[in-house]
């Protein structure tokens, strides 16, 4: 697993003036000294915070809602502190912060902690959860009760034993991005779907958990296949 070191370098320059001449003034585009970065400052009424939007070519806009453009919003800072307290490594935490600032991940301290607590309760370790979060962008923003638990309950109904849950979801970290269908027979995400079966392997009666990926309307040869082999059920 290679760490994605995503820092905050090159995201923008500080706005040197915070004066507010007129309430609700029209946005004034400002070209910074660095040609690769465009800074737009929208002045608002005196009782609201200045919103600074910075755009770097090739990157999503980063909305700041703090007076100091280099200070993280308090909600994201709380998530950052919480992850540090759990022993997550700095490069992975920076990746989570960067995704949140870019709007790719929407979460709070309470939501992220709820996800981590639930995954811990089913047998995953902190470094394993960190690994899953690095692959599944939205994992720390999912509802533990309606998204995570419903998937785990589905796996158990399909015959996956409790001891096999951690290994299965670790090998399929994006499985929680799928939702249980109305019939409770498979997991769906758009036109893609997942069906899990526990099947015998070999002649010794040993069982394995088969995770099968399908795409609606695709032929057999075009349908996506499971990225890894069956997970053995102890």
UniProtKB/TrEMBL annotation:
A single BP term in Gene Ontology: DNA-templated transcription termination
Keywords tagged on the record: Transcription, Transcription regulation, Transcription termination, Transit peptide
Keyword Transcription regulation: yes
One Pfam family named in its UniProt record: mTERF
The keyword Nuclease belongs to this UniProt entry's keyword annotation: no
Top-level taxon: Eukaryota
Entry's family note: Belongs to the mTERF family.
Organism annotation: Chlamydomonas schloesseri
GO molecular-function terms, A-Z: nucleic acid binding
Protein name: Mitochondrial transcription termination factor
């Amino acid at each position: 697993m290679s760490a994605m070191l995503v820092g905050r370098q090159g995201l923008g320059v500080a706005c040197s003036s915070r004066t507010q001449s007129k309430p609700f003034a029209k946005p004034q585009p400002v070209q910074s000294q660095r040609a690769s970065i465009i800074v737009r400052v929208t002045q608002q009424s005196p009782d609201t915070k200045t919103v600074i939007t910075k755009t770097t070519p090739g990157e999503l806009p980063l909305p700041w809602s703090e007076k100091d453009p280099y200070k993280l919003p308090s909600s994201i800072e709380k998530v950052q502190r919480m992850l540090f307290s759990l022993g997550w490594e700095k490069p992975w935490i920076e990746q989570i912060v960067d995704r949140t600032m870019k709007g790719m991940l929407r979460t709070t301290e309470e939501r992220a902690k709820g996800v981590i607590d639930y995954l811990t309760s089913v047998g995953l370790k902190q470094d394993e959860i960190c690994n899953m979060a690095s692959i599944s962008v939205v994992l720390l923003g999912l509802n533990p009760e309606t998204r995570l638990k419903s998937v785990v309950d589905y796996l158990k109904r399909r015959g996956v034993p409790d001891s096999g849950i951690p290994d299965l979801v670790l090998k399929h970290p994006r499985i929680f991005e799928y939702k249980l269908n109305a019939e409770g027979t498979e997991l769906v995400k758009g036109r893609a779907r997942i069906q899990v079966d526990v099947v015998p392997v070999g002649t010794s009666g040993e069982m394995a958990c088969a995770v099968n990926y399908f795409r609606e309307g695709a032929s057999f040869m075009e349908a996506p296949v499971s990225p890894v082999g069956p997970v053995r059920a102890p």
